[in-house]
Design a protein that fits this description.
By secondary structure, the chain is α/β, with parallel strands linked by helices. It has 13 helices and eleven strands.
Length: 364
């Protein structure tokens, strides 16, 4: 991986430490991803007249990505990552859902389209699907433009049970799991194959660049590194249903890539932690405490449980996710209570001085 955006000759060390983290060989941890957006001089490209074009105009999309990444300060082990996406339910749109994109809010909305499973075609991506073609265009453009500049990330893949919830509607899917379990088992098998298909398709684009891989959770590997995308719906179901409908998909997805991280979203998702930790090929669990809940330093029992199962743990501090916390206090508590060499500390800060102070604290 090459880039001129990481200062002071730290690139080699950052790459080595990221690789060591995934191989359980990190020393002098934790892994520290601290970024400070828009602190370098520059002029952002003019926004297009229509909001939708911020994502549909590939020229603008790439120019905005380069502007953002080139003007970011990367502290500690952080690296520039370009993450082309079309919102959290882009997979549902690739399968045929109507989608409205809201780039300024960094999200999108979709309309479920499955009214009757018996009349639903096989869950495959039509190569002529508008949103799939747009995603591939953005992926290729970002990958080409990012050579020797940034890592082009794997997409945020809400396949699995999340994908079914998006195309059917969460309430309807929960009823289906009770009344049509065999149908949902079959749909989940299709979702697992869809996940593999997308991973392979994206791999064929980004891996030959030699820039390695990342995803929306940040982190880096020269190999295929993915975040599991079926976890938000799990907050709505109990342990028996999670075991029955979700576990096989989780296991196969982890087994299919080189390194994996599971996005554990809030206390309602934590009820499934025991089974998640049973996945041998899972490397790391990202803990998101949820809005209004205590910061990660107040969840030490849960974080110790993750590390006690042989997994690493990631905590995140950004907008709407604990970014207002006293990070010096958080870092001190976490490093003293946990195995710091299996801790991934990801934060967005407002100044270079604050970012550097956190890195120095971590070294101490």
């Amino acid at each position: 991986m090459k880039t001129g955006y990481v200062e002071n000759g730290r690139l080699g060390e950052s790459l080595e430490r990221n690789e060591a983290f995934w191989n359980n060989e990190l020393e002098n941890g934790p892994l520290m991803w601290i970024t400070v957006p828009f602190v370098r001089p520059g002029e952002s490209p003019s926004e297009p007249d229509e909001e939708e074009m911020m994502w549909t105009d590939a020229d603008y999309y790439v120019a905005a990505a380069e502007d953002r990444l080139s003007r970011t300060y990367y502290a500690g082990d952080a690296l520039p990552v370009c993450h082309p996406w079309l919102g959290p339910d882009q997979v549902a749109a690739w399968l045929g859902s109507e989608m409205t994109i809201l780039p300024k809010e960094n999200t999108s909305w979709i309309k479920p389209f499955v009214d009757d499973w018996g009349k639903t075609p096989e869950l495959k991506i039509d190569p002529e699907n508008r949103w799939w073609k747009l995603y591939l265009k953005l992926l290729h453009r970002c990958s080409d433009a990012g050579k020797n500049k940034w890592i082009t990330a794997f997409p945020d893949l809400h396949t699995g049970i999340d994908g079914l919830g998006a195309i059917r509607g969460p309430e309807n899917l929960m009823i289906d799991m009770l009344t049509e379990p065999d149908t949902i088992h079959g749909a989940m098998r299709q979702m697992t194959e869809l996940w593999k298909y997308v991973v392979d398709t994206v791999s064929d684009v980004i891996m030959p660049t030699g820039q390695g891989s990342s995803n929306w959770t940040m982190g880096y590997s020269s190999k295929r590194f993915l975040c599991l995308g079926q976890n938000d719906f799990a907050c709505l179901i109990g342990e028996r249903m999670f075991e029955e409908f979700c576990m096989q998909d989780n296991i196969e997805c982890c087994d299919y890539v080189d390194h994996s991280i599971y996005h554990l979203d809030g206390p309602d998702g934590a009820r499934h932690l025991s089974r998640i930790l049973d996945i041998e090929s899972l490397d790391c669990v990202q803990w998101i405490q949820g809005a209004g809940n205590p910061y990660p330093s107040q969840w030490l029992d849960l974080l110790k449980r993750i590390q006690g199962a042989g997994k690493s743990v990631q905590v995140m501090y950004g907008p709407s996710h604990g970014g207002e916390a006293n990070l010096h206090k958080e870092l001190d508590i976490l490093c003293n209570a946990l195995d710091k060499n299996r801790l991934f500390f990801w934060a967005v800060r407002g100044s270079v001085e604050e970012a550097d102070a956190l890195i120095e604290q971590a070294k101490e």
